[in-house]
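Request:
You are asked to prepare a plain-text protein record giving the amino acid sequence and the backbone structure tokens, at your earliest convenience.
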Amino acid sequence: MERVVGAAMAAAAIVLVTGPGAIAWLRRAGLGQQVRPEGPARHAAKAGTPTMGGVFLVAGCLAAWALLVPPAARVGPDMAVLAGFGALGALDDLRAILRRRSLGLRAREKLAGQLLLGLAASAWAWNHLPRARAWLVPLWGTTWEPAPWLGVAAGALVLVASANAVNLTDGLDGLAAGSVAAASLAYAAIGWARQDWELAVLAAAVAGACLGFLWFNAHPAQVFMGDTGSLALGAALGWMALRSGTVLALPVVGGLFVAETLSVMAQVAYFRWTGGRRLLRMSPLHHHLELSGWAEPQVVVRLWVVSALCAAGGFWAVTGGRAG
């Protein structure tokens, strides 16, 4: 238990200590946020705010994990997933900044990179982590073992879907960081309850780094995590679910991210079906709430509450049934 708490504290401390210098460097390097012209008008003031803060957020996770997990117990892909998706996100951020537009890599380029990383991580998990082959059925206390090809393919899709869901949620100051912190704390608790200490340390490190990052990312944000952070954090959540065999509970633990993703899918489908009408004022969901009259901090805090409730529900779904 000491290592779990220590991982959270170490990650938060590393991010807090390195944050000011990293933000100053990002500003000097001209790595400022490009704001979508079709976004809420009030977001225009955020243009130029340093982005790619995910660099020191991910570094905090990596450092805390290296400090708190004994060498003999380390699972390389734990951090390879975080670093790999973070690097892909950094490439996306850099291209967007250099092109002075809000979009970096083409959608098919980004998806291809994510699928390659996802398949590699999922195949490794299937061959080396027993729990990754036996998926817990929430509340029932039983497990389901998919066919190898299905398990590897589904695992890759979980990583990709989770990464993009957090990426979609990262649209307001502090929203993604706080929501990922809640989901990660749920996985730290799941790891503790099931005596999966490596999972607990990994999840605690991610949660601690997110909480440290919130010091700088809370409204009005001094820095944004960019795709560097959001893709890495989303993939980390998917990896926690995959390595622990709790893939079927991830939609509950990360219920907010599911809602944000479904809001985009529903908006696009309705727009095409009706020939141009909109279901929401703007997608993702957080922008709809903002344009409905809620102040940005109000949207963020209320969605944090939702994410915390989802995280608690996911923990109960995994540990509250017949499985311990």
Residues 114 and 175 are 23 Å apart (CA to CA). The beta strands are 135-137, 142-144. The longest strand covers residues 135-137.
